[in-house]
Design goal:
rod-shaped, 169 residues, 20% strand, four-stranded antiparallel beta sheet, single chain, alpha+beta, 6 strands
């Protein structure tokens, strides 16, 4: 019996060094592909938070206009926050915040900034038309903050970044 088990053990082989290296290389290639994808997910989450905040600020600005008989002249960062206390107005909380907002008698715009990515997302409303612009606040490209209440072209000219594709969302 002892000779039989000794013979069975000697017939089993382990992995060769080459086989182990091939497996390690395959794992390395898969990690090199997967890790950047996972890191980009956090950027998407920050941008999604800013988009949600811009949309909430847009709804709040609509409510301010409705209360004022259709005029959006009272729309500002402070009035957005006083009407909807969940709208953050500074980066101190570590989340997205409304960095700019203004209105006139018939239109308004709100700009939300994503924390950690520095991407911004803008919603403009001119009567019934809604425009959405976005871009990075840093890096290459030219950022032009709104010069009027109505802009029909993106205010950012540069490469797409994060949750901003081609200057709109």
């Amino acid at each position: 019996m002892h000779a039989t088990s000794k013979q069975a053990l000697s017939s089993e082989r382990g992995f060769t060094l080459t086989e182990l290296l091939v497996v390690i290389m395959i794992i390395g290639v898969l990690a090199a592909i997967a890790i950047p994808s996972f890191l980009n997910e956090s950027r998407k989450a920050y941008d999604a938070s800013a988009k949600e905040l811009a949309r909430t600020a847009e709804t709040t600005a609509d409510a301010i206009g409705t209360d004022a008989g259709g005029s959006f002249a009272k729309v500002s960062v402070a009035t957005l926050n006083s009407n909807e206390t969940t709208i953050q107005t500074s980066s101190a909380g570590g989340n997205a915040w409304v960095s700019d907002a203004a209105g006139d008698t018939s239109s308004f715009y709100v700009v939300a900034q994503a924390n950690s990515t520095s991407d911004w997302f803008e919603v403009e409303r001119d009567g019934g038309a809604v425009y959405r612009f976005c871009g990075p606040s840093t890096g290459s490209g030219a950022v032009a903050w709104p010069t009027s209440m109505t802009q029909t072209t993106p205010v950012y000219s540069g490469p797409a970044a994060g949750g901003c594709a081609n200057g709109s969302w």
